[in-house]
């Protein structure tokens, strides 16, 4: 049996395909042991066998539906109790097509459960365990629609804005304990999420769609540079810094003892 990796174990949710599977491949090459979490056990096991053979790392699979509270609790407890886990990649997510008025309550609630509730609980568990250990990292997969809410479905966009906000706040809470946090904001990425949500990615201009390998490689490069927010397709990071500076400038006037003069 392979010896445990000195880098520890990376727990990746939504690891059976797309972004999650690609993170698994890249992190195995970096020498991480893996704990792959998804609903599709057959695909997980096939990926685990391939990565174990190619990279020589330990790869464990865990079948879990993170919209199911019992399954979520199992993954959460593993994060809290397994000291070998040093990296959490919160990748599992779902999109829905159509407007909020047209969407079904069932699909909306499932999206919120996966994109927000599950991600939050797993982030909390990792923050607790990693802070206590004084090391570790949390990567949360958000989306550029967090910055362009007018461009896409209301619930999905709002869920990714939540992920961005949570990650920014979490950085302030756990960074001082030696825990690295990163929010990744991909644009349109060629994965199965489009088919599953009923959207047609082929209707978009080809220059808008990034291949998943390039996206993950860019995200990991941002991780290596200790970026809090990584936007893989953004050419100039100064544009993001300008947005942060503009938001910060609002700070002194966001909470005052009098209303602004224009409201009087």
UniProtKB/TrEMBL annotation:
EC number: 1.1.1.298, 1.1.1.381
Protein's UniProt keywords contain Oxidoreductase: yes
Catalytic activity annotation: L-allo-threonine + NADP(+) = aminoacetone + CO2 + NADPH; 3-hydroxypropanoate + NADP(+) = 3-oxopropanoate + NADPH + H(+)
Gene3D superfamilies linked to this entry: NAD(P)-binding Rossmann-like Domain
GO MF term list: 3-hydroxypropionate dehydrogenase (NADP+) activity
Keyword Oxidoreductase: yes
Broad class of enzyme this protein falls into: oxidoreductase
Pfam families: adh_short
Keyword list, A-Z: Oxidoreductase
Function: NADP-dependent dehydrogenase with broad substrate specificity acting on 3-hydroxy acids. Catalyzes the NADP-dependent oxidation of L-allo-threonine to L-2-amino-3-keto-butyrate, which is spontaneously decarboxylated into aminoacetone. Also acts on D-threonine, L-serine, D-serine, D-3-hydroxyisobutyrate, L-3-hydroxyisobutyrate, D-glycerate and L-glycerate. Able to catalyze the reduction of the malonic semialdehyde to 3-hydroxypropionic acid.
Similarity comment text for this entry: Belongs to the short-chain dehydrogenases/reductases (SDR) family.
UniProt protein name: NADP-dependent 3-hydroxy acid dehydrogenase YdfG
Provenance organism: Pseudomonas marincola
């Amino acid at each position: 049996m392979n010896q445990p990796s000195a880098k520890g174990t990376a727990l990746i949710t939504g690891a059976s395909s797309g972004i999650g599977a690609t993170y698994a491949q890249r992190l195995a090459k970096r020498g991480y042991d893996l704990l792959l979490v998804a609903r599709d056990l057959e695909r997980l096991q096939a990926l685990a066998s391939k990565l174990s053979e190619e990279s020589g790392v330990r790869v464990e699979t865990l079948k879990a539906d993170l919209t199911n509270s019992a399954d979520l609790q199992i993954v959460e407890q593993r994060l809290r109790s397994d000291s070998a886990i040093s990296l959490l990649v919160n990748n599992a997510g779902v999109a829905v097509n159509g407007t909020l008025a047209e969407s079904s309550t069932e699909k909306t609630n499932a999206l919120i459960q996966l994109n927000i509730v599950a991600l939050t609980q797993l982030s909390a568990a990792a923050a607790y365990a990693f802070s206590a250990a004084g090391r570790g990292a949390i990567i949360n997969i958000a989306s550029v629609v967090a910055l362009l809410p007018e461009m896409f479905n209301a619930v999905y966009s709002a869920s990714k804005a939540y992920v961005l906000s949570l990650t920014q706040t979490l950085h302030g809470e756990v960074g001082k304990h030696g825990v690295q946090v990163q929010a990744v904001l991909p644009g349109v990425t060629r994965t199965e999420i489009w088919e599953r949500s009923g959207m047609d990615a082929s209707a978009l201009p080809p220059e808008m769609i990034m291949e998943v390998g390039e996206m993950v490689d860019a995200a990991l490069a941002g991780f290596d540079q200790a970026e809090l927010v990584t936007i893989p397709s953004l050419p100039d990071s100064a544009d993001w810094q300008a947005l942060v500076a503009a938001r910060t400038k609002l700070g002194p006037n966001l909470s005052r003892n009098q209303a602004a003069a224009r409201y009087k």
